[in-house]
Amino acid sequence: MSRLNDLLTEIRELETRVAEEISKEAEGFGYSLKRGRVRFEQAISDQHRELSKKVGDYLRECSWPGLLVSPLVYSLIIPVVIFDVFVFIYQSLCFSVYKIPKVRRGDYIALDRHELQYLNVIERINCVYCGYVNGFIAYVQEVAARSEQYWCPIKHARQLEKNHSRYHGFLPYGDAEAYVTELARLRQQLNNNE
User: How many domains does the chain have?
Assistant: First the structure.
């Protein structure tokens, strides 16, 4: 298990370095964050507005099949919003009862790309839609990960393509003794928000 912990520590360190590099990009594009809002230098905002594609030009460049399926793409918002309501209720009730720390939606859903002046109104709507749906999916994954850590923190027998943030700390498949002795520790770890 020590080698696995070493690898996980390396991954976390790399993720931190990646986040630092992404933050450095902000300097090169002339923006800063103030009270959670993006602020561009005025000259850059003016340049962005000049680069914005007119809606008519944007629509002329779209393919007919793309335009025809766009209502289907946007119709997904209905089940996502319904699912969002159910996840909110689930987390509010169940996490409170079991004393599982709640997942903050704001840590996963970011709606800021619609403020970019080089996007036209259609592109801005697309960015709000994608920011919400993809952020919501990441939020739900963390809600599910915390639920799984509480009720069934056991790795699967087969290797999965992608695992959630808590999976690597789960117990080995088939290790009955570890399940009996470690389940309480994993629940406590979750309650300590580790």
Answer: 1
DSSP per-residue string spanning 57-71:
HHHHHS-HHHHHHHH
Say how far apart CA 62 and CA 53 lie, in whole Å. Answer: 13
Which DSSP symbol is given to 154? B
> Domain for residue 37, yes or no?
no
pLDDT value at residue 85: 98
The pLDDT value recorded for residue 194 is 62
For 89-106, the pLDDT digits (tens) are: 999 999 999 999 999 999
Question: How far does Cα 33 stand from its chain's mean position?
Answer: 20
Whether 106 is in a domain gets the answer yes
Looking at the predicted structure, is the pLDDT value of residue 128 above 60? Answer: yes
Model pTM greater than 0.90? no
Over 81-135, what HEC string results? HHHHHHHHHHHHHHHHHHCCCCCCHHHCCCCCHHHCCCCCHHHHHHHHHHHHHHH
Domain limits for position 168: 69-191
Chain centroid, CA 66 distance in Å: 26
Asked if residue 2 belongs to a domain, the reply is no
Domain assignment present for residue 53? The answer is: no
CA–CA gap between residue 72 and residue 59 (Å, rounded): 17
- Min mean pLDDT across 23-32, 52-61, 144-153 is at 23-32
